[in-house]
Write a structure and sequence with these properties.
single chain
């Protein structure tokens, strides 16, 4: 798979990143059926998105996917919360993600 990514790099750049196991969080989301904000425990995965500007990969955004803790794999599913992330004002470089 790495060889395929390297071969496709000129047309479709890939970035290899270190894997970190998802952390558990308590979040709230809007449940349309209940028409209420409800809590949900879940494990989070952060997916960074990069764009190439002047030949350099720049972080363009991060998508957080939070799934119930009983799910083995974190991915977009009907019972997942998927939200964009932002860096809070005043956060240092080491606390961006």
């Amino acid at each position: 798979m790495i060889d395929q990514a390297l071969a496709a790099f000129p047309a479709t750049p890939h970035i290899l990143q270190e894997f970190h196991k998802g952390r558990q969080f308590e979040l709230s989301y809007y449940n349309e059926q209940a028409q209420d904000i409800v809590p949900m425990a879940g494990r989070a995965r952060l997916s960074p998105y990069y764009i190439v500007i002047d030949g350099k990969a720049e972080l363009a955004g991060i998508l957080a996917t939070v799934c119930p803790p009983d799910k083995k794999l974190i991915h977009g599913m009907k019972d997942a919360i998927m939200v964009p992330c932002a860096i809070a004002q005043g956060q240092s470089e080491s606390h961006k993600v």
